[in-house]
């Protein structure tokens, strides 16, 4: 069936009457009687004719069914087009002149602002002018924008490796409650308590250059000195025999701030040994960069 319509209006009232169904100004159906003395009625629908008197009604029904299908197809197509229009993107580029605190900066940037669906998006070159040429860049691999020098962001050691390898679950504990060192509260880190060497090994995947943390004696535990040793692994994951740093922890001293050059080691190992007796120490606020 050729030709499409959205609405069909039909009616036959008398021989010789002309009836039209209209879609967008086009006549799609009419009934003609060229001879007023004849009972022959010819129906023309979009150029296809059926002699209603001399043919059966099946031909006319086939034409009507075709028109109904055309109506459905047009409705579906109209819905699809409406959806596409609704979800379409409107975009344009604008030239702008930069005014700073009411004073013309003399900077005019062409096609530097994109207006997309009524939102403004500024070009990197225009942003550089706004920030007086301080380096600005976007890394789409990490979905980060950098202003100034690119620096590796700080990360919490326990976020990078929340489940370290420990000598035993009793001697090493990830903090779940507040501890106090020199009367100050600390919330993030781990504790080691033992009369001999206990350790915790963190897999940091070779992704960091430096490590900073605080270490100190935990209040209300035995007033005994201890020694913290830090070991780093090689590229194979094996630890060196000698520590990169050895720190004496005096129970009467304030927590010490420690900085370690990791040199992108794959693992870092904390080991504490008490000089005598039993005590407990905290290693907290551990940050990688």
Considering the chains and any ligands shown, give keywords for the structure.
disordered N terminus, 23 strands, 3 helices, mainly beta, six-stranded antiparallel beta sheet, 289 residues, five-stranded antiparallel beta sheet, elongated, Jelly Rolls, 3 domains
How do the strands and helices of this protein lay out in sequence?
Blueprint: E1 22-23, E2 26-27, E3 29-32, E4 42-45, E5 48-51, H1 57-86, E6 91-100, E7 103-116, E8 119-122, H2 124-130, E9 136-139, E10 144-147, E11 155-156, H3 157-160, E12 165-166, E13 172-174, E14 179-181, E15 184-186, E16 189-194, E17 198-203, E18 210-217, E19 226-232, E20 245-249, E21 256-261, E22 267-274, E23 279-288
Antiparallel strand pairs: 1-2, 3-4, 4-5, 6-7, 7-8, 9-10, 11-23, 12-17, 13-16, 14-15, 16-23, 17-22, 18-21, 18-23, 19-20, 19-22
